[in-house]
Amino acid sequence: MTAPTRAETIAHGAAGNRRGQGCCSASGHVNAGLAPDTIKLESMNWISGGAFLMGSNSFYREERPVRPEFVEGFWIDVFPVTNAEFRKFVEATGYVTYSERPPNPAMYPDADPALLVPGSLVFVKPDRPVSLRNNHAWWEYRPGANWRHPQGPGSSIAGRDDHPVVHIAHEDALAYAAWCDKELPTEAEWEFAARGGLEGKAYPWGDAANPEGRFLANTWQGQFPHENLAEDGYDGTSPVDAFPANGYGLFDMVGNVWEWTSSLYDAAPEQPPQSCCHPNAGDDRSTRRVVKGGSHLCAPNYCLRYRPSARQGETVDSSTCHIGFRCVVRRPQGG
Question: What does the DSSP assignment read for 68-108?
Answer without folding.
Answer: EEEE--EEEESSPPBHHHHHHHHHHH----GGGSPP-GGG-
